[in-house]
Structure formats: C-alpha cells, structure tokens
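agent> fetching stored inputs for the FE2/S2 (inorganic) cluster docking request
agent> found them:
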Amino acid sequence: MVKVVRLEPIAQETSVETNGNLLSVLINKDLDVLRECGGRGMCATCHVYVKQGMEALSSINRREQRTLEVITTCKTNSRLACQARVMGNGVVVELPPGMYINSIKDIEDLIGRRAEQNLLHPVTGQVLVEEGKLITRSMLKQIETTTSFSFGAFLSNSSDI
Ligand code: FES
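agent> prediction call returned; pasting tokens
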C-alpha cells in the first residue's frame, strides 16, 4: 500500500510504501539532506517537524528519543526522518530552516561572505551563523572554541551503535 506525504514549505506531495521511512520521501524529492550519521538516528541533519499526522508514523524509539533530546531546535512535533516510518496517510512534514554543515571547514570556506541561510550544527541543530551575518575569521575561532565538531568522537561515545 502506498501512503501520501506532503512536504512543506515546498508544498509538494509524494508517496511512499507503507512502512517506508520519511527520509526516503525527502530524498525522492531531491531535498538536500546531509545524513551525517548515515541514517542511524544519531544526528540532527534529517530532523523534521511533523505538522500533521504524527499518529500515522511509527513510534519514537529509544535512540531517536535520545538524539532528539540533544537537538536544540527540538519541539514536541520533531522527528528524525530516517527513523520515522510512514504507516498511514495525512502526514505533513516541514524541514527546519537553514543549512547543516558537516565540518568547521565548510564555514571556513565562506569567510568574507554573508551567510545565505542559517548554518546549523550537524549533531545539535544549533544555529552557528545566522542568515545575513558576515562570516569572519574571529567568528570561526569562537565557533571552534565553543562547539565540538568531533562527530566521530560523538558516534564512538555512543553506547548503542
Ligand atoms: S540521518 Fe542522522 S539521524 Fe537521520
């Protein structure tokens, strides 16, 4: 059976097999989802807000719950697209605004430019650089000292891989 999922804010509908995950829906629509952890439920890069139809999704597992607790932009309607499976119709999802980066190097490459959209941390979803802000070397230093980008360490510290 095929279930219909609607994506906001691009206002497009797409279908997925029953029990298929939301991540496949986003990828099918060519949305740029970083999948930093490879779909293992351990990063923020496939975080979505479910605007409607939470009851039509599989329930939240322990790993997803733990990761959602780390995500700074988490709300009561947050899910990880790689963990949420579509069981019924009527699901409407929205991606958090901004662009996830996967290393400090990504910001370094943008020094001297204004951020075209919020730049987001791949594990916590924290806004590292706000949209419109000029990216400077001192800003980069500050991000480096206040934020851990050791994603590999984050994964290996996790007990249930
Ligand atoms: S891709 Fe990392 S949590 Fe879904």
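agent> quick read of the result: The pocket of FE2/S2 (inorganic) cluster is lined by residues 35-37, 39, 41-43, 45-46, 80, 82 (CB under 6 Å).
agent> awaiting further instructions
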